[in-house]
Amino acid sequence: MLPTSESVERVATFTIEGGSGDILTSNLLADLNQALIEFDGNPELRAFALLGASGSSYSSSTSDEVSARRWRPLHRPAKPVIAALRGECRGLGLVVIGSVTDIRVAGEGARFGFGPPRLRVNANWATASRLHSQLPHTTLMHLLLTGESIDAREALRTGLVNRVVPDDDALPTALAIARSIAEIAPAAVRADKLGMVEAPYLSFDDALFFGSALATLNRLGPDMKEGVAAFVEKRKPRFKGM
Amino acid sequence: MSLVPIDYEVRGHVATIRIRGYNDHNPITQQMYLDLHERLSALDSGQGARVAILRGSGDRHFSVGGDLKKHQAQAEPLTTAGHLSAFWFPDRAVPAAGLNRVTLFSRRTVTPIVAAIQGYCLGGAFITMCLHSSLRIAGESARFGFAESRLGLGGVSLSSRLGDQVPYAALMWLVASGEFINAQDALRIGLVNEVMPDDQVFARAEEVAAMVSQVPPLTVRAEKEALFHTQRVNFQSAMALGNILEVLNLLHPAALEGFPGVTNAVDMSSTATDSREA
C-alpha cells in the first residue's frame, strides 16, 4: 500500500501502512523526504506525525535497492516530528527514526535493532553513528554487534522513545501530541528545537549567546506578549505568529 | 527566621540556599535571579561552604520560575529597539528586558550543589537546577518542565544544557511539547538521582551533601572543572587537561593522605595550603 500524506488541524501526517518484508524502499523514502520538505516550507503546518500503521515494519532493504545506492540523509525539519512506532523498526528504519523524529510513541509490540551483522555486508556505519545521541553507548553497541533487538520497554528505559502504549493506541497518542504541539506559538517551538539541535556542537559560552539571540528574536515577535497576557488573564492564547 | 528572598545559611561545610518567593510557589523575581547569581559566585570563590543544598522555601514547591504576573504588571513593555539593545549590550540591560546572559545563566557552578525538589520546578528555576546542581533528590510530587513555549517564548531552554543531561527524545519532549514530566519520568531519563516520598527529601539531601563535603574540595572542583571544559573537545585534549589537573591535585600537601605506605615526597610547606584561605 502506498504511504498516505495529508494535513489536518495544522498537523501533517505521513502514514506508512503495514506489510510483510521490507517497506522502506527508495520510493517511500523519497516520498517521506518530500513530505518533510513540504511540511517545513508550509507556515500553516506546525507538527509532523510519522505514523507507522498496524503491523508495519521499517527495515533496511535486503534487496539492495536502498543499500546499493548512497544513503542520503532525510530532510530534518525545523519543526517537531512525532512518530508512532509499531512492529519491527530495524536497520535503516531505526536510523530514520533516530535522525528525523523528535518525540516517539511506541506500541507495546515495537522492536528496535539492526538485524544480524552477517547480513549487513553493505552496511554504512556512518548512518548508525547518527544514533549515538539517541541511545546510550552500551545499547547502541549491543544492537550493532549482536544483531539483537530491544523491545518497547527497553526502548523507553534507554530513552529512545518517550512513551509505550498498547499497539492500538500508538497512532492516536502520537496524533494527540502533535495536535497539542500545534497549538503552541510556532516561533517558540522552532527556537527551542533549533537550540537543542545545535546544542551538542556549542560550547557553554556559545550556547548562551545563541540561546540569548534566539530568545530575543522570540521576544520581538507578536506571540510572547499574547502568551504572557493569556496566562495572566487565565485564558487560552490566540497566537498569530508564524 | 529571616525573610530574605534568597536565603543563605551555612552549617559546617554545607550551605543551604532557599528560594523564597512571595507565595508558596516561590516565583523568582529579576532581583532574586541577580541575588542567586551572586550567592553562587561567592560559593565558587572558595570562601564559602564546600557543598550547597538548593531548595525552595517551605515544603510544597521548589519554584515555578520567573514571576510572570508581577513582570507583566510592573514592567514597561520594551520596544523592539529596547529588546535589541538588551541583547547587544547586556551589561546595560534594565530588569524589564528579562533575563540576559550576564545574569544567572552566564556561569556554571564548580562547587557541588545538591538540589532538593518538591512540587514545581519550572522555567527559569528548572534551568537553574539543571545548570547549577550536580546531584538531585526529588520528592514524588516533583514536576519539571518549561512552560515558556506555551507562552510564546522559545530559545531560553538552550541555557539549561539539558542536552548534555538527558536522552534526545526526553529533551525534545521537554522543550517542544511544553508539558511537564513527573518524578518517575525524571528518574527514568536520568534527570534526577533519586525519588522518594516528599517528607524524606530534605533529610536525604542533607545526607548526600554531608557525603560530598567529606571529599577533598579541590578534588571535587577538579572533577567539575574538567567535565565542563572537556565536554566538547576530542578525547586526547580531554586527557591532556585531565592529566594536568590530576598532577595539580597531587601537588597538594594533603594529597595521598590516608593511602597506606605512601609518603608525599613533595615539600610544599612554603606555599598556601588551605583551599579556604582568602
Structure description:
The complex is a heterodimer of chains A (242) and B (278). Chain A is of the alpha/beta class. In chain A, strands 1-2-3-4-6-9 form a 6-stranded mixed beta sheet, with helices on both faces. In chain A, strands 5-7-8 form a 3-stranded mixed beta sheet. In chain A, a hairpin with a 2-residue loop joins strand 1 and strand 2. Chain A is globular. In chain A, 41% of the residues lie in helices and 16% in strands. Chain A contains 9 helices and 9 strands. Chain B is of the alpha/beta class and 278 residues long. Helices cover 37% and strands 14% of the residues of chain B. In chain B, strands 1-2-3-4-6-9 form a 6-stranded mixed beta sheet, with helices on both faces. Chain B has a 3-stranded mixed beta sheet with strand order 5-7-8. The longest helix of chain B has 18 residues. Chain B starts with 5 loop residues before the first strand and ends in a 28-residue tail after the last helix. At the A-B interface, helix 6, helix 7, helix 8 and helix 9 of A face helix 2, helix 3 and helix 5 of B.
